[in-house]
Amino acid sequence: MDFKKYQHVGRLGTTSTEGILNGYVYVQPKIDGCNTTIYIDDNDCIHIAGRNKEYEKGTKNDRGLINYIESHIEYRKFLLEHKGTRLYMEYLVPHSLRTYFDDAWRVPYVFDAMKEDESYWVPSTLHAELESYGIPYVPNLWEGDGSDLTAEKIKELVNGNKFLVDPEKGEFGEGIVIKNYTYKNPYGDIIWAKVLHDEFNNHSNVKGRLKDVSNSELENEIATLYITKDFVNKEYAKILNDDPFIERHKVIPMLLSTCWHEFICEETYNFVKKFRCPKVDFKTLNQVVIKRIKELKPELF
Questions:
Q1: Nearest residue to 207 via CA among 225, 226, 219
Q2: Strand partners, 36
Q3: What is the pLDDT of residues 70-112, one digit of tens each?
Q4: Which domains are seen in the chain, by residue range?
Q5: Which DSSP category does 102 fall into?
Q6: Of 26, 157, 201, 219, which is least surrounded by CB within 10 A?
Q7: Would you list the DSSP string of 27-82?
Q8: How far is CA 114 from CA 5, 74, 118, 297, in A?
């Protein structure tokens, strides 16, 4: 088996997740950690990887994950007895959200498992198996027909997600992930949808102000809508995941370019559709995006 990167998770309400609520869906907490993968090869050796590549011993990029997996034999036992399965997990290390219980840190939580034929385990079966091995996992908050997942229900689930959250440190989790295991988006891709607490509660008012925006205000409105604190922190965390000891003078240009790249790739179609093919000055847009990033990450600049 070779390393296989986990699929994309897009924002609910965008074209990339259109139709995901048509069918049976599962809603799970979204936790703010490092995306990781473990699997076993034909020689029964465990491979441990981050979001984009396999970790190497001695580099410290894994932040203690390799040692954790190797010292907890239940992972090896599970993989040996379920050959061809990959476990996708969120390794909880401090990022933007720091309100979790103290004993929740430095633990990987399984949120999906992929079979050798690249189909996913059904959560009910997966969770029962993981429990029998004593492996931590991300539970379901809700499941049922997607047509029952109304805006009011989504709000209830987003605000009600307190998985691993210490009430003495905070009130809410990062958000929720919506999964439909029979779904492919309009482009033929398997993708899940996410709803973030910060965006849902603090930026829903922006959506109501997007009509009849003059061109002079357009770039600022786009940046305000799509360049959120969560988005910037996520891209920042990805950089640190790849190199936890990267120097500040290297982080800043990397963060600015990465945020701009991801924003253009992920959101251009969405804001073109929302504003009905507007005339956008991309030089101005780039400037306001950089300004927005600096406002949201003042401790770095």
A1: 225
A2: 89
A3: 999 999 999 999 999 999 999 999 877 889 999 999 999 999 9
A4: 7-198 (3.30.470.30), 207-298 (no CATH)
A5: G
A6: 201
A7: EEEE--SEEEEEEE-TTS-EEEE-SSSB--TTS-TTTTHHHHHHH-HHHHHHHHHS
A8: 11, 18, 6, 36
